[in-house]
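Dear support,

We are seeing what looks like truncated structure output for some complexes. This example has two components. We would appreciate it if you could run it in full and send us the complete token output so we can diff it against ours.
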Amino acid sequence: MQKHAVVSSPETAVNVKPLVTPRGLIVWLVESYAVPLVSLDFAMRGGAAQDPPDKAGLAMLTASLLDEGAGDLDSQAFQRAMDEKAVEISFRNDREHMSGRMRTLVKNLDRAAELLRLALNAPRFDEEPFLRVREHANARLRHDANDPATLAARAWRSNAFPGHPYGLPADGTLETLAKIERADLVAAARRVIARDKLVISVVGAIDEKGAAALVDRVFAELPAAGDLETVPEAPFGALGRIDTVALDVPQSTIRFGRPGLKRDDPDFIPSLVAAHVLGGHGNMTSRLFREVREKRGLAYTVFGAFYALDHGGFFYGGTTTKNERARESFDVASAEIRDVALNGLGEEELEKGKTYLIGSYPLRFDTSLKIAAQLVLIQLEGRAPDWLVERNRQIGAVTGADVRRAAARAFGDGSLYTTVVGKPEGF
Amino acid sequence: MTAHAPVPQVAHFTLKNGLEVVVIPDHRAPVVTHMVWYRNGAADDPPGKSGIAHFLEHLMFKGTAAHPKGEFSEYVASIGGQENAFTGPDFTAYFQQVAKEHLKTCMAFEADRMTGLVLTDDVVAPERDVVLEERRMHCDTDPGAQLGEAVQATLFTHHPYGVPIIGWSHEIEGLGREDALAYYQRFYTPENAILVVAGDADPAETLALAEETYGKVASRGEPPRRVRPLEPPSVADRLVTVRDEKVQQPNWQRHYLVPSCRTAAEGESEALDVLGHLLGGGQTSLLYRDLVMEQKLAVSSWAYYHGTALDQSRFIANASPAPGVSLEALDKAFDRVLAKFLVEGVDESALERAKTRLVADAIYARDSQSDLARWYGSSLALGQTIRDVEDWSSKIEAVDAEAVLAVARKWLVGKPAVTGHLLPLEAEAA
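Here is the complete output from our reference environment:
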């Protein structure tokens, strides 16, 4: 077992040990013995961006079926085996990854590892769970068919990324799910579940040797390489346009956005600082929160943030306001966005935003589950373990000039593509 | 509880002014969760003033004489902390999660707003609009949420649990500064509050900090009394139907009036927890196997016992029908599963799995300082003790098949209940 330098981040009290296992897999380990648990997180490249347009939802269904039977265990036997030891194993997908998580009491680690190994190495994709899980996915789509937030997000995506996988609904539609067959899942799993685009973290009451053995047992026998479709760079359509989707509800759900910067852009970090001050999630002092909610009482939620995907970055935000005042709400929010685009941030709000982003970083590391998730995320972003220290250093170094330059590039002239669902007045 | 699992050493104090203090040490990260719980919630709203507990929770962020509007939130944001608040039927809680060196300052701010709140009409009016938008977003645009409110109002015909926490729109519209201050002065007192600090904190040091900050809040003598009209026993079966053109996936639910952890006879609450898991906890449960896998009447089904309430509580079953299956068919199917359960008895291995799962959840909760803070805080706010929290796992382990069947017979089988049906409009013509 080779060892790399241990990275200790005093701010987060996390000591990351990057290990190479005997079988050559890389895992980032954090040993923590306070609670008798072990958490393992992993991710592989794949995700909804790999879905064929007429089979949107394929990645979602594939991930959903992995805990529905594997090896000698049919769906019910697999679920029962997890229950017997209170083992938690779950799989999910986002746009660009299939990821999974296992959590177990230390005393049940052997059984948990075996179940996770089976799920990834020998998934059955039996007809019964396939039909059942697909029917449940259909029911979720019907449940959300007239949900304003779901409608707004779907409409916004499909118009913002026309003809690109990012514009497809990751959960599919009733039409695309109906076209998916069991064989599609088997093929999708074969293309995605492999060692070459895999990142892993282990956190908990387990030492280096134990973690390496766990990782090798679960992942070492997977195929060496997957077979992914190349995803093109995402275009951004309809900038400057506002689309309305009529729905008979008393409130308008507004979603807006525009292209942003990609993660490897030197101005990416300053653009994150700008967006945080503008409308960061959970920031009860952001400009949008103050102007839209506190001063005018226009909405309960209002937000705006940058999202960096592998093939395009974008800004995305929104709010919900009663139909009569929807236009006012949108105008107030877009004026703030335009102001940041043209003028950057004030000195004081910039400093406050930076101290928030720096000071809040340790809160992402206060449970084993959160640590494991963060370590997978950092690896997916292609960072080294010293990112736990480096991230705050880079934010601390952001100047007013950096923000002005980054905001001018990321927000441009402040123009947006907007979707409004409801019966909005003034649009 | 597994023998090798180190149980956190929870410290419990009471200050001279009556404020309870709970410290749950967890030194893994240099972070603390600081919470204050008040023993009052939406069920203590005066008649005609529904939503006042929740509205006041919003207004608590509007500043005091010592720290005018926004100063507390500005401070929490400036140090990278998280903050928020929530209102339940039986309690209201405020919290910050911050780096440990900021604990004392948060305590000082929170102690200050226990009695120092200043409200003016120019902050009250826009915040009332915010609450109305919150209600529109979560209830008025969602037929499923509207059914939930209607079912709750039908299950609790007399007890204020039947009124939504956020309040009814027409009453929220009438809430003003005076209502908020009257409610505030009645309930926001040290005798009515519980301070919970979880995370990288030493009990003795935390107690000293609490005395320096919260200890200065003047005692009011007696804690406020909350007297609620109790729900009479149910005698009527009720069907509540919401039809809406937005509904494309119907939903079925059944709600029973049952005792809570506070009102149940010894062991009954834990037996109801286990019963909930056996009936409807995940894919190996009786409901899922029968309705979803074998009969294919539903695409999902679950059941849950909600034990954390001061007065009576609910046992809920839920199912989403498969295409073409009527909700009446689910009514019958649920009764059949329940009846079959009584006849066939409890499968011992299923009972063991359910208990293993519930006990493991208590260990998993220890991975999260904020989960622990919420568990202890909510329990104490309901009048339970630290001991009650710590004994929960062993009480779950003590539940046997007989106890599960006994609570099923006593509280569910053949008992009056509220059934909820969520349906699309076109079904009306059928």
